Amino acid sequence: MSGFLKHVLASVAVLVSAVGLRGEKSTPLSALDLDCVVHVRSRIAPPPKPGQSVSGSPISIGGRKFADGFGMHGISRLQIEMDGRATRFTAWTGLTDDSPDPGPVWYEILGDGRMLYEGEPIKRGDAAREVDLDISGIRTLVLVVHSPDYFNVHTAWAAARIAYEGETPRAVIPPREKPYILTPPSPREPRINGAAVFGVRPGSPVLFQVAATGDRPMRFAAENMPSGLALDAATGRFSGKIARPGKYSVLVSASNALGKAAREITFVVGDTLALTPPMGWNSWNCFADHVTAEDVRTTADLFMKHGLPNHGWSYINIDDFWMTRPPPDDALWEKLAGRAIERGYAPLKVPGADDLPRLASPARDSEGRINANPRFADMQGLVDHVHSLGLKIGIYSSPGPLTCGRCTGSFGHEEQDARRFAEWGFDLLKYDWCSYRFFVPPYDRISKEELQRPFIVMHEALAKQPRDIVFSMCQYGLGDSWEWGADVGANLWRTTRDIIDTWSSMSGIGFSQSELAQYAGPGHWNDPDIMVIGHVGWHAARRASRLTPDEQYTHVSLWSLLAAPLLIGCDLTRLDDFTLNLITNDEVIAVNQDPLGRAARRVSRDRNLEVWARPLADGSVAVGLFNRGELPARVTTRWDNLGIHGARVVRDLWRQRDLGSFEGEFSAEVARHGVVFVKLYKFGKTMDKNKQGE
Ligand code: GAL
Questions:
Q1: Which residue has the higher pLDDT, 393 or 333?
Q2: 404 lines ligand 1 (CB under 6 A)
Q3: What is the pLDDT of residues 654-679, one digit of tens each?
Q4: Which of 10, 211, 519, 536 is a Cys-bridge partner for 285, taking CB atoms 3.0 to 4.6 Å apart?
Q5: Assigned domain for 185 exists
Q6: What is the rounded distance in angstroms from the CA atom of residue 513 to the CA atom of residue 563?
């Protein structure tokens, strides 16, 4: 909102302020700086508008209309600073009648770190609920709407006012919290980390880097290698081809001047790729539409510099904008615009001439092979460089003629594009629905077959290629795609709309995945989107993630529990120690990469406190004790919810420290929006997989 407009609104607010008996003033909440409202798309989408719900309609709750107030999307928070001389807070609360999801949600109001109001759950259609609070003496007021199960809820603070005697209350963005590091440094002795199982098709090139921390130089060796497989003793990279299907367990060792570690790694030669969730980087969350080959190359080099492959990080994925964009006079625009209108979509945005110079060049060559845009002039060189580092590389396309960024998609060229991607040497394809929507009936009428078709076509094309290409389906969960993603050959599928770096977006997505756990497993994973840690911001607004340090621990712990693909989306040229600590904790990563591949579910919930757990291959259980509330709280996990009996050693995974032996239950103090992430294992079973040879 422009400063001028804010000023006008504030003046109007003062004019309309009721003057109380004791000379009190009052301000509508809607006159404060609504840019400070943190909700799903805050500070990316425009701020909430006074008098409107988030979808822009007048505010209506349970059929009752309110002239004043503002709407929010999903989980929301607004912090207001006062001088201690405010007296009353009054408002009407509830879901606006245009909310796509039904709720329930609950409202909470905190004053100076104390709970002042704890609302009961409220659903769409319920009558608006009144809040009337004495806030005398309070300096910091925090207004929160929790949406524990739903992402797409619209709520409002309707007719909300603060009465005060001193200075006008101010909405603020809370100051950044100080990061703190929990991950201990890796030992100098060799330790083998990451995936212990790797899927490859018969005869496809093997590209597998043993993840090992410890001082370099390190020597790698392997026993029981199947014929065709080779190991580079200096780098720990497996290569070659295994012709015969089967399971080959290879005993891998890593030695340096200080010691030796050994661990079994199983090559499963068959039809299934991605036996553990892919781990890597994707260009979208930081470089977005400005990505260049140089950014990708630099990221790969920084993976090596920071030793990320030693922890299992292996994919460097180029997202949208590596290909060309049809010029504004291309006939395709007109054709698609017509289809968009027929189907009731917003008019298609034709890129302006300014967008073109950097991306211009024919979409395809004379034989129809897709071209990269001039920013990726030497795609082959880039792929070869990434491979030379022992890393894998991913690419992006759409089943539609245009990607979401309105660049060239694969429509009608699926076989050809699959072949091109394989020739270049790509190892993963993210295939994003985008303009394909113009070729199918509207979503309320589309059949499952129509949703599946484009992915089947591309999967079949990929399956014909002489190299393995992990297939990442992206259509945001349309038609409950987790139920059939594996049937159409996807190795991972997005379960939600795009994530951004707000607590609302990340926690709204992450904590809504419990029911989906049953669909995840080796070779097929739910993908709740790229993690929003580190320096992100979709090019235009690059910044350190707006998640607090505790929220980021929650993020990585939850994604590990969910068996989600671990993709980072940050600018590695600005990697800080805190982010590095988040992505190099081998015990946390081991939960994500556990070969059993069972995703976590929520096992208990008490309002804002949740416990999520997943069983691990060695018989232990990984448990996340989460506090989604605004105040620190004690969270308890009970054995009967976890299906275990007897004594268990509880190990803090972030600190990599045993906390002692517990029976029946374990409790911990958990920070606001934070987590205590533990593993429960039977005494005598060492944590160190290297020694167990598991
Ligand atoms: C979106 C997708 C994002 C990103 C973007 C590129 O549809 O969800 O992850 O790929 O398109 O334009």
A1: 393
A2: yes
A3: 999 999 999 999 999 999 999 999 99
A4: 536
A5: no
A6: 11
